[in-house]
Design the sequence.
């Protein structure tokens, strides 16, 4: 069955960096558009970034442009989210999703606080 497992969340100070990973299995990863979403307490889940099957077609939320970078390694069935210059408002649960499907990971918590 389809599985998406996120890792890499944690506590980081404002201005710091953190890298998330999402390992996929049970589907053809190399033919799937992948994405990261996040949900902050009391807010709706929002798209953070997405990446096409060949690593192109990058799409970022305005709030993270220039600070976050999405990438993928099809040989490892893994999609990444590098987050730099983190701000307290980036605090959220971050989810991996096969874009345009109902397949989601369980999420990893990112907390930005001093």
Sequence:
């Amino acid at each position: 069955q389809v599985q998406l497992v996120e890792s890499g969340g944690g506590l980081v100070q404002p201005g710091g960096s953190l890298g998330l990973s999402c390992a996929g299995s049970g589907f053809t990863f190399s033919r799937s558009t992948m994405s990261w979403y996040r949900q902050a307490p009391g807010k709706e889940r929002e798209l953070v970034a997405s990446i096409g099957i060949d690593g192109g077609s990058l799409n970022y939320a305005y709030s993270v442009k220039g600070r976050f970078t999405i990438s993928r390694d099809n040989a490892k069935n893994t999609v990444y989210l590098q987050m730099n210059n983190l701000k307290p408002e980036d605090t959220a649960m971050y989810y991996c999703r096969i874009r345009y499907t109902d397949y989601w990971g369980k999420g990893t918590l990112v907390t930005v606080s001093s």
Strands lie at 3-7, 10-12, 18-25, 34-39, 46-51, 59-60, 68-73, 78-83, 92-98, 108-112. Residues 16 and 85 are 5 Å apart (CA to CA). The mean pLDDT is 97. The longest strand covers residues 18-25.
